[in-house]
TrEMBL record:
InterPro entries, alphabetized: Ankyrin_rpt, Ankyrin_rpt-contain_sf, SecEffector_AnkRepeat
Gene3D superfamilies: Ankyrin repeat-containing domain
Top-level lineage group: Eukaryota
Coiled coil (residue ranges): none
Protein name stated in the entry: Ankyrin repeat protein
């Protein structure tokens, strides 16, 4: 792009804000990924690690280490030994394959306290390189028993080479423990949908049958959403006729598996339970398919589930396709029930579509505002407060008494107080 055009566009505040809004919408609404402001990333080590800001992460913990030393805190290994945020940041580094970050902090600060949890993170994320590196350092701190959890959780990493290495080199257990480890590993392979490792595990475990693997191994496979894994179990003589399997598949957003089980003639494949699981999943394609193949009618519990699960896409679908299920004052009901915390995106959608009645009772207004200040986690309280204050002319028949709310908000949180002050 021509620099002059670029400068002209971004010097226009309205255009600049619109562009950022559209980019954020693509990132959050369509790609379903989290969005952060830089000031959030800069002060959170796990985000610095996840996005590979190596130098900034080093600088952050140099400050922390120097501060701890200046406070004369006694440490066994490192001035950062008891900083839990570093342990979490390193686990993120392992999951995101940030090997430079992992190796620097382990070599520089000797953080052996985190060794076990980091190895589990490596196993569950399939990071074989990190697992071998961690296995190679400070061997005196490890024992064979510590490898039980790493082997059991390793199917979720879906790394065949890593699992072969673990089974061949780290299965140094007595026969009873070894059998138990194999049973739990097979169960997790089913739940991970890691069909490529199942025959190998069965062969190595010398189990003549999968008894003891799980109370319902077909359910483990269904949770994975892997049709290949379900078919592998069917080939071993297991059945998938129970309606609970297709309900579970819908709950976990596995449309293709729902269609597969439906094609297999599963009893009750599109019943009320499956429909409600689809609504709770928030996956519109799944909801639409279940709707087109349903054997029962929708009821008002559907919108209740969509709101409780904070599934805006489900709310939109119901409003478009089954508007008779949604009360005309549903927004009022949600605001009146202060303990039922709903995402602001859903509240805004209901407001934009006029699914509310203007609140003209002072007592109701007071209770709604107090609930917004006091109920739920801080982020939700702040968002709800902004929603109510920003839309007060639409929601209430007269302006909110912010001067009465201000001291209450300040007593709860400086930031909540600042939000109210911005509307004075």
């Amino acid at each position: 792009m021509d620099n002059k055009i670029f400068n002209n566009v971004f010097n226009n505040m309205l255009l600049r804000n619109y562009i950022f809004q559209q980019v954020r919408s693509i990132h959050v609404d369509y790609l379903k990924e989290k969005s952060f402001k830089w000031k959030e990333v800069a002060c959170k080590p796990y985000l610095l690690a996840g996005y590979n800001y190596f130098q900034l992460l080093k600088e952050y913990y140099n400050v922390v280490a120097n501060r701890n030393i200046s406070l004369n805190i006694s440490f066994v290994y490192s001035p950062l030994e008891k900083d839990n945020s570093l342990g979490y940041a390193l686990r993120i580094a392992v999951r995101k394959n940030r090997s430079e970050i992992l190796k620097y902090f382990m070599a520089e600060h000797k953080l052996y306290l985190y060794l076990d949890e980091l190895m589990i993170s490596a196993a569950t994320s399939g990071n074989f390189e990190a697992l071998q590196y961690l296995d190679s350092i400070a061997p005196q701190l490890k024992s064979d028993n510590l490898y039980r959890s790493r082997i059991i959780e390793s199917p979720f990493g879906k790394n065949i080479e890593m699992m072969h290495w673990l089974i061949e080199n780290k299965m140094n257990f007595d026969p009873i423990v070894k059998r138990m480890v194999f049973q739990l590993t097979i169960r997790n392979a089913l739940e991970a949908g890691f069909v490529g490792i199942l025959d190998y595990l069965i062969d190595k475990s010398e189990l003549t049958e999968m008894q003891g693997v799980s109370d319902d191994i077909m359910m483990n496979a269904v949770k994975s959403g892997s049709i290949a894994t379900v078919e592998w179990l069917i080939s071993k003589g297991y059945q998938c006729k129970n309606s609970s399997y297709i309900t579970c598949a819908a709950k976990h957003c596995h449309l293709e598996l729902v269609q597969y089980l439906h094609g297999k003639g599963v009893v009750g494949s599109c019943t009320k339970e499956v429909m409600e699981s689809a609504i709770g999943s928030g996956q519109v394609e799944l909801i639409q398919w279940v709707h087109e193949n349903k054997t029962e009618e929708w009821n008002r519990n559907a919108i209740k589930i969509a709101i409780e699960k904070n599934q805006l896409d489900s709310v939109r679908w119901l409003h478009k396709n089954k508007p008779d299920l949604i009360d005309k004052n549903i927004l009022n009901q949600l605001l009146d029930d202060g303990k039922k915390k709903v995402s602001v995106n859903i509240l805004q959608y209901l407001l934009d579509n006029r699914l509310y009645l203007v609140i003209n009772n002072d007592r109701d207004t007071e209770m709604i505002m107090l609930s917004a200040l006091c109920e739920g986690n801080y982020d939700l309280r702040a968002d709800t407060l902004k929603f109510l204050l920003g839309n007060q002319q639409l929601l209430f028949n007269k302006s909110i008494d912010v001067f009465t709310l201000l001291p209450i908000a300040k007593n709860l949180s400086t930031n909540l107080g600042s939000i109210i002050e911005s509307y004075i």
